């Protein structure tokens, strides 16, 4: 049994190509059924996210399996695989194992070490099993990939260092306050960055949210999505004293929050600190605000410095993750190669026994008067010769079973001895 992955991602194809081959929850079932119905596919799964679409499969004939994928891609939409061949990548056997393990670990993501991809791999596996298109090989492959993804995150902490602007802002706030539970956040601006930051704040325990924007309607829309309160922009100073965290990301060309405003606000807070984060360019918050007592001010450059440090930490963690993946690949490869090696050994022994029996019958048929004791001696001699001849090939194939090329040695042995084993035939790229 051979495994493969064919796909495209954010590194191999631009979005205008990727969007031509995507599957939603409502369409992926039909796609799985169609793929599984193709001759040559014995098990499959499809991983489809905003950054990648990948077809995972197992086959008894690698050429037929890859041809099946090409037919499937052509049937699924306007994307003719031959016209976009440069955008697709194909991995088989050892490289396919490594690819899925790296994907599940977040090492192949746009954001190194992202956590969301592990859940997406798990969901792809669930959908394949729910639709009855997986098999023991695909099941074991994905189960171990999920285990690898968990192990990498647990042992390396690769996802513990924030590398997005919005999440880093929240991490800095948590460092200032230790715990964000029960805190109040004031968001200036109602754009995408403000919404992302707000989402992270709420996920980390912020209980009260105030949203201010020059367009009150947009403030109401954002506040409504997160259960917060919209406030009029001209009430900003009046309500700021309620906030523990102020995050500003407007399109203003001048300072929205000035030092004198903050001094008046802090005078009413009785030394309770405020954490300001200025994500805007040009800046929304006057830099001297950071010198006011009780104020913690960070701008976009401060955040970027933290992000750079965290990326360096993630890169260190990624190096450790690769070591873990190598270990896990070897374990999976031993199991996968045993699917080739064990039947090969059984067939080789059967071939030896067939030759021994045939030749004994031929020789002893000519020596019918030979005493039974001598017949047994000749039979034992024939068995000994066959066993000794097969001992080294069997020993070596067991040894090579643990190597990346174990399946190839099995094929060579099958060809040399003329062994016919159902479900094991490879051509082309597997060679």
Automatic annotation (TrEMBL):
Residues bound to substrate: 49-52, 109, 114-116, 120
InterPro entries per UniProt: 4pyrrol_synth_GluRdtase (IPR000343), 4pyrrol_synth_GluRdtase_dimer (IPR015896), 4pyrrol_synth_GluRdtase_N (IPR015895), GluRdtase_CS (IPR018214), GluRdtase_dimer_dom_sf (IPR036453), GluRdtase_N_sf (IPR036343), NAD(P)-bd_dom_sf (IPR036291), Shikm_DH/Glu-tRNA_Rdtase (IPR006151)
Residue intervals of the Tetrapyrrole biosynthesis glutamyl-tRNA reductase dimerisation domain: 321-419
Example GO molecular function: glutamyl-tRNA reductase activity
Every Quinate/shikimate 5-dehydrogenase/glutamyl-tRNA reductase domain range: 171-306
Keywords, alphabetical: NADP, Oxidoreductase, Porphyrin biosynthesis
Site (Important for activity): 99
Active-site residues annotated for this sequence: 50 (nucleophile)
SUPFAM superfamilies xrefs: Glutamyl tRNA-reductase catalytic, N-terminal domain (SSF69742), Glutamyl tRNA-reductase dimerization domain (SSF69075), NAD(P)-binding Rossmann-fold domains (SSF51735)
Annotated metabolic or biological route of this protein: Porphyrin-containing compound metabolism; protoporphyrin-IX biosynthesis; 5-aminolevulinate from L-glutamyl-tRNA(Glu): step 1/2
All residue ranges annotated as the Glutamyl-tRNA reductase N-terminal domain in the record: 6-156
Binding site for NADP(+): 189-194
Keyword NADP on entry: yes
Enzyme Commission numbers on file: 1.2.1.70
Enzyme class label: oxidoreductase
Gene Ontology biological-process annotations: protoporphyrinogen IX biosynthetic process from glutamate
Assembly: Homodimer.
Domain writeup: Possesses an unusual extended V-shaped dimeric structure with each monomer consisting of three distinct domains arranged along a curved 'spinal' alpha-helix. The N-terminal catalytic domain specifically recognizes the glutamate moiety of the substrate. The second domain is the NADPH-binding domain, and the third C-terminal domain is responsible for dimerization.
Task of the protein: Catalyzes the NADPH-dependent reduction of glutamyl-tRNA(Glu) to glutamate 1-semialdehyde (GSA).
Family: Belongs to the glutamyl-tRNA reductase family.
Other remarks on this protein: During catalysis, the active site Cys acts as a nucleophile attacking the alpha-carbonyl group of tRNA-bound glutamate with the formation of a thioester intermediate between enzyme and glutamate, and the concomitant release of tRNA(Glu). The thioester intermediate is finally reduced by direct hydride transfer from NADPH, to form the product GSA.
Protein name listed in UniProt: Glutamyl-tRNA reductase
Species for this entry: Heliophilum fasciatum
């Amino acid at each position: 049994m051979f495994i493969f992955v064919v796909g495209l991602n954010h590194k191999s194809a631009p979005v205008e190509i990727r969007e031509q081959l995507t599957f939603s929850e409502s369409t992926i079932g039909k796609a799985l059924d169609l793929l599984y119905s193709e001759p040559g596919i014995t098990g499959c799964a499809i991983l489809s996210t905003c950054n990648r679409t990948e077809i995972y499969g197992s086959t008894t004939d690698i050429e037929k399996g890859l041809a099946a994928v090409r037919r499937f891609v052509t049937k699924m939409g306007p994307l003719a695989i031959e016209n976009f061949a440069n955008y697709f990548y194909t991995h088989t056997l050892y490289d396919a194992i490594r690819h899925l393990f790296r994907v599940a670990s977040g090492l192949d993501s746009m954001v190194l070490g992202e956590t969301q991809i592990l859940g997406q791999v798990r969901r792809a596996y669930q959908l394949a099993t729910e639709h009855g298109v997986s098999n023991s090989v695909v099941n074991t492959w994905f189960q171990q990939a999920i285990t690898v993804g968990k192990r990498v995150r647990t042992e390396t902490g690769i996802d513990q260092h924030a590398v997005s602007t919005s999440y880093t802002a929240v991490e800095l706030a948590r460092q200032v306050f230790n715990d964000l539970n029960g805190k109040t956040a004031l968001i200036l601006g109602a754009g995408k960055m403000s919404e992302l930051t707000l989402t992270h704040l709420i996920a980390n325990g912020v209980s009260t949210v105030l949203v201010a924007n020059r367009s009150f309607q947009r403030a109401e829309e954002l506040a409504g999505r997160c259960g917060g309160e919209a406030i009029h922009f001209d009430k900003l100073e009046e309500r700021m004293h309620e906030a523990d965290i102020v995050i500003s990301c407007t399109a203003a060309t001048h300072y929205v929050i000035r030092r004198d405003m903050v001094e008046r606000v802090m005078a009413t807070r009785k030394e309770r600190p405020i954490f300001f984060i200025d994500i805007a360019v040009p800046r929304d918050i006057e830099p001297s605000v950071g010198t006011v007592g009780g104020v913690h001010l960070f701008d976009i450059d401060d955040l970027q410095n933290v992000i750079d440090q965290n990326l360096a930490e993630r890169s260190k963690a990624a190096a450790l993750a690769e070591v873990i993946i190598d270990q896990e690949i070897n374990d999976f490869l031993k199991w996968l190669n045993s699917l080739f090696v064990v039947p090969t050994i059984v067939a080789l022994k059967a071939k030896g026994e067939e030759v021994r029996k045939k030749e004994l019958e031929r020789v002893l048929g000519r020596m019918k008067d030979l005493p039974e004791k001598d017949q047994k001696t000749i039979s034992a001699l024939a068995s000994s010769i066959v066993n000794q001849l097969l001992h080294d090939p069997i020993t070596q194939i067991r040894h090579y079973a643990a190597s990346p090329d174990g399946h190839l040695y099995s094929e060579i042995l099958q060809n040399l001895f003329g062994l016919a084993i159902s479900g094991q035939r490879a051509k082309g790229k597997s060679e």
